[in-house]
Structure formats: structure tokens, C-alpha cells
Specification:
Layout (H helix, E strand, L loop, with lengths): L1 E5 L6 E5 L6 E3 L6 E7 L2 E5 L10
Antiparallel strand pairs: 1-2, 3-4, 4-5
Length: about 55
């Protein structure tokens, strides 16, 4: 299923095919990483920055 939405950073029009909650996607327009936080309704938020101590 395809979803239409806009980038919360640059407001570029995005089409997502079969997104999953938690998926990290780059914006095709501004390059920022976005996280899918909800599918109903589709919601994107800025992906968290990777911290140096993650995974320790």
C-alpha cells in the first residue's frame, strides 16, 4: 500500500510504499532521516541522532 505525506522538515511531497512503524527513511528532497511513528494516520518524525554510547 502506498502512502502520501510530506516531510516535516522541508515539506517535500513523499510517497512511501509499505512503510513499517519504526522504519528510518531518508527524505528524497532534503536528505534528513525520518522515522515512521504511526501508520493510521501516517506520521513521520525526525529520526533520533545516533549517540556514541548506543549499543554498549
Amino acid at each position: 500500500m502506498s502512502y502520501q505525506t510530506v516531510c516535516p522538515e522541508c515539506e517535500g511531497d513523499l510517497t512511501l510504499d509499505d512503510p513499517m512503524v519504526g522504519e528510518i527513511l531518508p527524505c528524497a528532497f532534503c536528505g534528513v532521516d525520518l522515522e515512521v511513528t504511526s501508520l493510521d494516520p501516517l506520521q513521520l518524525e525526525m529520526a533520533p541522532e545516533v549517540e556514541e554510547d548506543w549499543g554498549e
